[in-house]
Amino acid sequence: MSRSESSGTPGTVARKSHHGQYRTGTAYLFLAPFLLLFAVFVVVPAIFGIWISLHVWNPLLVNQRFVGLFNYFQLFTPGSLTFGDFWQAMGNTALFTVASVPLLVVIPLLLAMLLNQKLKGVNFFRAVFFAPYVLGVAVIGVVWRYLLDPQNGVLNGLLELVGLPSDIPWTVDVPAAWFTLVGVTVWWVAGFNIVIYLAGLKGINQELYEAAAIDGAGPMRQFWSVTIPGLRPVLAFVTTTTILSCANVFGQPYLITGGGPGHATRSAIQYIAYQGLEQNQMGAAAAMSYLLFLVLAIISIINFRLQSRTAGE
After folding, report:
1. Which sign, positive or negative, has the C-alpha torsion 197, 198, 201, 203?
2. pLDDT digits over 13-39, tens only?
3. Are residues 44 and 105 in the same domain?
4. Taking Cα atoms as reference points, which of 291, 299, 296 lies closest to residue 75?
5. Which of 78, 103, 168, 172 is 20 to 30 Å from 204 at the Cα level?
6. What values do phi and psi take at 49, rounded to 5?
7. Within 13 A of 124's CA, how many CA atoms are on the CB side?
8. Pair 17, 116 in one domain
9. Burial 109-140 (b: 16+ CB within 10 A, else e)
């Protein structure tokens, strides 16, 4: 190695190191606004929420009594003020999630595959399926409560005109109320999942389909051997986000069924809001929120593990 090369190497390394530090500093500078907002509106409230859950926290009182894990123990103590209603609401949420998630995973996939074909007017139908998702939950709730009103609703009126049973209690009795909540949710959210699936389908190499067809694979075989493996990351994302959104359902039961009849369709988030905002039991509501968060985190981890294991096989 020449003297010039040996003398120039340290300077080159120093310049590269300085340049790397400059790029890192620039990246953090651009991230700073987001990190600040994330800390103020996510990290700090999350930590403060844990602190609230350790108190009998009533915003109407001056002093908030520290009780440690008492609020959490109450959730697992039969006969406590929150045990029965909380776990009923959790059961309602689980029922809604189990009923909705398979439909919101399978139906959008089938529609996305249809809309991925080169058909006339396909862009119009893509817009039609996505349009409901643009509407807010308040609009969805009010409109469907009016359409499905058991006494004066449009749907029961149409059923009466065609001679079919027109006394269906869509929003006031179970199981009809559950069919209503699940059906409205699928109609509302499916468009978002369709868009995600369409993006995933565009990323699958079309040569794989051609090779499968040459090997004699029919449409079903191509679906299981090409489409599903190509969509595994998308399926994991759609499944996880759908589970989380369904488990956090609030607007549909609140606006369409009011959580009734009785508390038969009241969701966990609904009950948490009731305890925290109406009963002013912020400590108990915070404990319920973190327990729900823990359950959803475990479910999400299990789902991703299963998807990763399936992909590895």
Report:
1. negative
2. 555 556 556 677 788 888 899 999 999
3. no
4. 291
5. 103
6. -65, -40
7. 3
8. no
9. bebbbebbeeeeeeeeebeebbebbeeebeeb
Residue 6's pLDDT is 47
For residue 233, what are its two tokens?
Answer: 């990351």
User: What is the span of the domain harbouring residue 299?
Assistant: 71-312
Task: Tell me which amino acid residue 154 is.
Answer: V
Which residue type sits at 182?
V
Question: Does 11 share its domain with 79?
Answer: no
Q: Among residues 277, 172, 272, 190, which one has the least CA distance to residue 238?
A: 190
Asked whether residue 159 falls in the same domain as residue 36, the answer is no
Q: How far is CA 78 from CA 173, 187, 238, in A?
A: 27, 38, 36
At 311, is the pLDDT very low, low, confident or very high (cuts 50, 70, 90)? low
The Cα–Cα gap between 259 and 151 comes to 19
The backbone torsions φ and ψ at residue 264, rounded to the nearest 5 degrees and listed phi first, read -65, -25
Residue 125 has pLDDT above 50, yes or no: yes
On whether residue 62 sits in a domain, the answer given is no
The residue count of the chain comes to: 313
Nearest Cα to 263, choosing from 36, 12, 89? 89
Region for 11 from its dihedrals, namely left if φ exceeds 0, alpha if ψ lies in -120 to 50, beta otherwise? alpha
Instruction: Please answer whether residues 212 and 225 qualify as being in contact, where contact means their C-beta atoms are separated by less than 8 angstroms.
Output: yes
Domain count, the chain: 2
Query: Which of 3-12, 58-67, 268-277 reaches the highest mean pLDDT?
Result: 268-277
Residue 4 clears pLDDT 50, i.e. is over it: no
Contacts 24+ apart (CB under 8 A), 223-229: 223/113, 227/113, 227/201, 229/311
Query: What tens digit of pLDDT does each residue of 242-268 get?
Result: 999 999 999 999 999 999 898 999 999
Q: Are residues 31 and 93 in the same domain?
A: no
| Residues 10 and 115 placed together within one structural domain of the fold | no
| Claim to verify: residue 120 and residue 234 sit in the same structural domain | yes
For residues 163 and 265, membership in a common domain is answered with: yes
